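<instruction>
Derive structure tokens from the sequence

<record> Sequence and structure tokens follow
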Amino acid sequence: MSDRNPKATKADRQAAAREKARALREAQLKKERRNKLLTRWGIVAGIVAVIAIVAVIVVNSLRGDIPDAGPAPANGNADGGFTLTSTTALEPTEPLEVDVNALPEATTTNEAGDTVPAGVEAAGPGEPVQIVEYVDINCVHCADFTGTYGDQIGSWLDAGEVTYEYRTVAFLDRNSPTNYSSRGANAAACVADTNPESYWDFMKAIFAQHASGEINNAALADMADSVGASDAKDCITSDGFRTYVKYADSLAREAEVSGTPTVYVNGAEADLNAFVDTVQAAIDANKAEASS
């Protein structure tokens, strides 16, 4: 009778041992590859987490906890604006403390019975026509408006025919990772405080570069220096008047200013498509009334 369970030969045992060793090596290699992959993904996840944390820290640093109360810059008024009386002069104001939690009356009623922001009013006979513009430094339409009408406004200013008040808002900070609307407005406030003779040139410069995108505080300080406002550097880089910027923005919202640019001429909101004609008509009417 034949043996049903023949004893494995030496060659068979060697082959089986080799196969077992191969299987063990393959299993070990798979384990090592899996561990390497897990390690690699762990490193990637760690890097992503670090980047996210850094991004949050940077954004929070930029947004910061801006105080609700503090001093206004020199030449800043209680309505949140700066009034040019020529291209090289701002209307002086008394020292002022502002508080976002104690805003003054934000609106008034004009001669036509319409509700307008506080401080918006018609000029008296022979006086310069008042123009008030609400602007957002990050607003492309504000940049276009300045590019289109800046030279004409400058001519009216230097002829003594108008005053021009900028009131900044920060509506577009909601779309900015760097709070550029607020930082740009702060830079303008710093220039008004330290070098009022350069304020007009700075406002024109900051809108002229709009197409290049948001810039950091160091670049804003360089821009101020380029228009003769080198004294504003420390204020710009330290966000010196962000409280006033916050105050001006809060007042505009209280007055229900809903977009930029919004322009008031001689006490009434202007149609921007007829801006030059509206201003010139007001200038002519004031001159005629003064001479009658």
